[in-house]
């Protein structure tokens, strides 16, 4: 575990992202073959409900979340790779909803290359996004499918119900083992102004940057937690699931504050540049959905993917330590 000092009173966490499907050659994105029976509140996910969910195993038994966006690309957070990593030492686990045991549907694929956004800044956490290229293309199955990315900008507005998922802690600062089964929780999008009312008090400038989105459990008892970094916030529209956000930070775990996510569509062009250059990784965007959630805000390219963890220090200290998970 590494630590980085920031002038902002936040703590770094791992949470995570989205995927695409190739038109004419791959199944339609964002359409699990498993019929969902999701309910409000945290719960065990069922096999096949989140077929784009990826776990990235790194040396030292660290893991980050990720999302399958094509047959050979996964998107996650750049801070997952702080330090030096040989890409071949990272394993992408696809098709798993349990993190122990040998599931016959699971596909463990070594990583070929890692592309961190060229403007990623580990200090201010801007442009905190990375693409992971798999060493081989994966075959799509009932439990391995990409999530959709919108071709334009958003109709997912405050109040829209979405799902965040991961294998992170169930409680803040917990000594209990992480869950074996993938967890999911329903969140509702909130406005940036409302989100800033939680985080910006006592700070110069905005902690919640333009280009981020926020969501929260309306009961204030559920949220992403440590170990969820790099994972997806997906929203349902017209019978398909779209990657709208990637978890970046929050205020503890279930402490009544919103969790903060990267606004994924702002990086669409950067993602397409890499994925489209791979013959086996071409994608098909869905043009009819507009991801214009921040239509009242300038959307910029400085998005971050972290998750805030210490509820006592984050709004009280003038300088805090970011913990790399």
Task: Explain this structure.
With 325 residues, the chain is mainly beta. It has one domain: Trypsin-like serine proteases (Thrombin, subunit H, Beta Barrel), CATH 2.40.10.10. Helices cover 5% and strands 28% of the residues. The chain has two helices and 17 strands. The protein has a six-stranded antiparallel barrel. A hairpin with a 2-residue loop joins strand 14 and strand 15. The longest helix has 9 residues. The protein is globular, with a radius of gyration of 18 Å. It starts with a strand and ends with a strand.
Strand order of the largest sheet: 10-11-12-16-15-14
Mean pLDDT across the residues is 71
What is the CA-CA span between the terminal residues?
6 Å
Q: Please tell me the total number of domains.
A: 1
**Text of the CATH class:** Mainly Beta
Alpha plus pi helix count: 2
Largest sheet: 6 strands, antiparallel, barrel
Say what oligomer this is. Answer: single chain
Q: What is the number of beta strands?
A: 17
Backbone structural class: mainly beta
Q: Mind telling me the C-alpha Rg?
A: 18 Å
CATH level 3 topology: Thrombin, subunit H
Spans of 5+ residues with little confidence (pLDDT < 50)? 1-25, 37-41, 284-325
For CATH, the homologous superfamily is named as Trypsin-like serine proteases
Q: What share of the residues lie within helices?
A: under 10%
